[in-house]
Amino acid sequence: MPPFDSPELLDLFTTYTAGPASIGAHFAQVAMRSCADQPLIVATGTDIAFFAGSGSSPVIQPFRLSTRGFKELAAVSHLGPALATLSVMAQQDPDGSWRADAARLLDACKAARAANSIELWRDHIRVTAFRGREAAIASMVDYSCRVTEHRLSQALDRPAAFTMHAVREEYLEGPAQDLPVPFSRIMIATFFLTGLDLAHRLISWFDGLDLDWERAMVIVAGRAGRATAGVTEESNSVAGVIRTAARNRLRPAHLYIAPHAPVFPAYDGTNGSAVAGFEDGYRALWASLDATSKLGADMFAGYPEFAPRSGERTPLGAGSRSVAEKPAIADATDWRAMTTRLRVVMEDSRQLLSGAVTDYASQQLIDSGNDPAAVTVPGLDGEPFPPINEESGND
């Protein structure tokens, strides 16, 4: 038997909260008129659009599709979880597909190592934020593939010894004489480099706009990464970069994460008018959220107010056994905090894996005048990677 709905009570429900003729919709329209000339920033998974207001055309910055080197660096950072995954498979299903998968990963590492070169990073991938570090990155990639190939070959020869303990001790952390750079540091370096590039480009773009950050409205729309990731400001890398670029001038309550909001089409350089068509909807969304929150403050004045977190991260205590979020990083040698962040971004499904240290990279750029060369890249700068031998074909 279908549930019974009272037409009269349903009408009462829709009068306030549903449909374009509802009180709520009219409330949003009234609120939107009050912010029609305020700067609005909308970030999607691929682009950031700046709507200055009062009918002006948006200024759009593609930041994801124009990213160079992201997949190449992700390929290296993924070697850590790939080896750990194969170890679990080997222990839980010794006769399963792990051996074929390990052999395929071994072949892929060899092919990637053969293709890797200083020239590849300097002349083809060509990331502005990496300028001057191309030789170091090439050496890191060469080393990463070599140590992974070694561990995979060992696993295929002695599968019983391919345990998670062995992966941790001989690969992720590793004795110094056998593994001069633990792979956990390489994961941090690749994530940092990705964040450095993203933050450098966006900070430069925002600085060129000369924004009135105190009045700015921000929406981060749509899905970010895995299905459960980026749904909080703490876990959303782009939201963090925007806050950092604002240099503490963006009001805490003026940024909304809206994973279910409509997403304007990816910008291809010619479809600015299609992006502009989304502006009124975004302004109505932001204005409605802002007006409703203020309504709550007015309706329940005298009760404790909601105060968003300051955004400051808590340092790890000497005896900390758990954390509720990514801990603060003291400096580029704070390996305990940075490695804890690797665990957090994998263990907390709200996190973006590539966002492990993006906020740290962003702040280092701000502190260094947005000069990537003045920033220390943990896990890369000063690490004893053997120089890549290009003349011998990386053999």
From TrEMBL:
<dbReference type="Pfam" id="PF18538">
    <property type="entry name" value="DUF5624"/>
</dbReference>
<dbReference type="InterPro" id="IPR041132">
    <property type="entry name" value="DUF5624"/>
</dbReference>
<dbReference type="InterPro" id="IPR001579">
    <property type="entry name" value="Glyco_hydro_18_chit_AS"/>
</dbReference>
<feature type="domain" description="DUF5624">
    <location>
        <begin position="67"/>
        <end position="196"/>
    </location>
</feature>
<feature type="region of interest" description="Disordered">
    <location>
        <begin position="368"/>
        <end position="395"/>
    </location>
</feature>
<protein>
    <submittedName>
        <fullName>DUF5624 domain-containing protein</fullName>
    </submittedName>
</protein>
